[in-house]
Amino acid sequence: MNKKVSWGVLGMGVMGLNLSRNFADQGISLALYNRFMKGSEEQVALKKIKTYPELNSALPFESLDLFVAAIESPRKILIMLPAGPIIDKIIDDIIPLLDEKDILIDGGNSHYNDTGKRFLSLAKKGIRFLGIGISGGKIGALKGPSLMVGGDRKAYHIVSKDLLKIAAKNINGKPCCGYLGSGGAGHYVKMVHNGIEYAEMQLIAEIFEICLPHADSNLESIQNLFKSWQNSSSESYLLGISSEILSYKQAGEPYINRILDQASNKGTGAWVTASGALAGSPNNLMTAALHARFTSSFQSLRKKNSIEYPSLASNNVTLPNLKKTYDICRWINHHQGFEMIQQAKDTYKWNLSLENIALIWSEGSIIKSKLMNQLKLLFPDANSVMEMSPFKKLVSKGQKEWMDVLIYSIGKGIPTPCISSAWNYFKAITQARSSAYLIQAQRDFFGSHGFNLIDQKEEGKNHGPWA
Ligand code: 6PG
To answer: What is the DSSP string of 120-176?
Structure first.
């Protein structure tokens, strides 16, 4: 009988393949499985093993039972498939082949509620289930991803030795990997990560668009602006790649100009928007970024409307300094994300530490940045991002310029969904008396829903004189 391997990886798409190569680089023995589909997916695992030398001792499979049988007990099987019913299907197929205490891991972008349900139903069958949010894209998977683990704690103790080896390391050499709680905790944190990612990307796109029509601007000058910001506290992975993207040319023309202006999404942005709404946790930057993608998808309607409703752009506005606005909005975006996590900590009783999550996100992940490293250092002494003194300083120095950027964008007819959402949130959350008393009066007027009075000592419903 052949010696059994340590891990099984199921699904040889780009993420499954690159994680396998990362495991193999760490000397971890592997069984690799990919389904057989006549004509389209044949001998996929074998072909990968032949292509990548680091995989040469891995075992290829197209039969699920032989794949499972090749893994040592308790089995550690990482499923790398797209989120959705396909995960339930593969779990159903694999369960009869497993033994109690085997560990199944979903490393895709599954919804945290699905992961929570799978965790409970597999626990009843004695199978240990982990849902891991994996960030870093294909390069992260290969060189070191950020790993957000949730599910069976005992299973984490067994797999953590290997996960810590493949994970990215932060500036102090600590692995960007951690156990965040039972059920869907890992996928919840990954979902919030993606919400922050959406808003980070949208903010860069807005700054880009604000710069574009300016007389002194061209793609090269914007690229240089982003490059210069990379040497400051604004540094981030997403800003870096944006600057690089602008440098690509084809036949002397900027390549970016050839790309259709319709942004796609795979669902996590909608989940985080819905989760924020259901939990009552304001996350309007992520929401704005998602809706900006939705709006972009109506391309022919936008074109038609642009003729019907021409912009009243003014030429008499000067381009203000954008950096402080960009920085303030990023801090607010991170604030909203960490607030969602803080709230989930109480709702789901997950042992989430904001400092630890900032560490996990500080390397390997798509939202790694200088800011994330700074937040990691500041969290032990602050309950929220908005309490942190660098944020207070930024606002006191940059609020006027932030207003100027908004005025400029309105003057130029440029939509700024995220920058204005940040402004509206900030203005609302720092407003001593909101207009909500009128809402309460309206609710009472038409529905006798009642309200509290300002000087009321104990909770109790009051009704207005209109009752
Ligand atoms: C990551 C990313 C990744 C995500 C893509 C695509 O952290 O590596 O979040 O997991 O799938 O960014 O997401 P959208 O298609 O929704 O933009």
So the answer is: HHHHHTT-EEEEEEEESHHHHHHH--EEEEEE-HHHHHHHHHHHHHHS-B-TTS-BS
Residue whose CA lies nearest to ligand 1 atom number 9: 194
**Residue indicated by tokens 């490393």:** 107
Query: Last residue of some domain: 183, 217, 251?
Result: 183
Exposed/middle/buried for 306, CB within 10 Å: 0-12, 13-18, 19+? exposed
pLDDT 10s digits, 85-114:
999 999 999 999 999 999 999 999 999 999
Convert the pLDDT of each residue in 338-367 to its tens digit: 999 999 999 999 989 999 999 999 999 999
Nearest CA to ligand 1 atom 1: 135
Active site residue 76: no
- Expressed as residue numbers, the domain containing 335 is 191-429
The pTM assigned to this predicted structure is 0.95
Q: Is the same domain home to 76 and 109?
A: yes
User: Is 400 part of the annotated catalytic residue set?
Assistant: no
Distance of CA 388 to the CA centre of its chain: 23
Q: Which of 15, 109, 196 to mutate to test the pocket of ligand 1 (most atoms within 8 A of CB)?
A: 109
Looking at the fold, whether 218 and 354 belong to one and the same domain comes out as: yes
What angle do the packed helices 185-211 and 417-429 form, to 10 degrees?
110
157 and 196 share a domain? no
Ligand 1 centroid to residue 203 C-alpha, Å: 16
Does a structural domain hold residue 400?
yes
Answer whether 284 contacts ligand 1 (Cβ < 6 A). no
Q: What is the pLDDT of residues 32-91, one digit of tens each?
A: 999 999 999 999 999 999 999 999 999 999 999 999 999 999 999 999 999 999 999 999
What's the CA-to-centroid distance between 190 and ligand 1, angstroms? Answer: 10
The Cα 347–Cα 370 span in angstroms is 30
Same-domain pairing of 204 and 340: yes
For residue 2, tell me if it sits in a domain.
no
Together in a domain, 90 and 168: yes
